[in-house]
Amino acid sequence: MGAIFDNLPFMVAGLWETAKLAALAIVLSAVLGVLFGAMGSARTRVARWPAIAYIHLIRSAPLIVFILYCYFVLADLGLDLSPFWAGVVALGVFTSAYLAEIVRAGIGSVPSGQWEAARASGLGHASTLRHVVLPQALRRMAPAVVSEFIKLVKDTSLVSIIGVFEFFHRVEVTNSRLLTQPFAVLGFAAVCYFLVNYGLSRVARRLELRLDT
Length: 213
Fold this sequence. Notes:
With 213 residues, the chain is mainly α.
């Protein structure tokens, strides 16, 4: 345990980087997920087909390949992102494809009578979606959405491959220095990820209960 305490400030400092990375990626994935999920549930092919292509194209690639793509290939195309922002974009866009499917399914689970009643009251399609359908769908989507966000937090460890000095990267560096206590160091990392994700799940549970009232 002494090795952990000796390197604790160094490793814990990476949690802040991980928190920023995860928070920005969650915001990006939520915006894109709702947008493409709504497009995927549209009746017109012009809106639906691009969303379906987006979802299937991104979900067909492993996340680690997508991270490398965002960092190296986008730079060749003239969009030179720092490792941190390449990680944010990769995690956010990748997760948004899964959120889009959740949103699309959530919208589809709302009874058609809700659409008809809203349209009969004079609301347009966008207003109906925003004020009537999405709030109801959110209650059904909440558990699946939280699961994706928890998965995203764990996936932040993969961006160390492009040089982001986040929490797990610092744990790896610490383990490389010590070499003799991998169980303790990696066990500490596992505990930290558990506490972060458990806290996130508890907050989400409270939000879910509030939405049900």
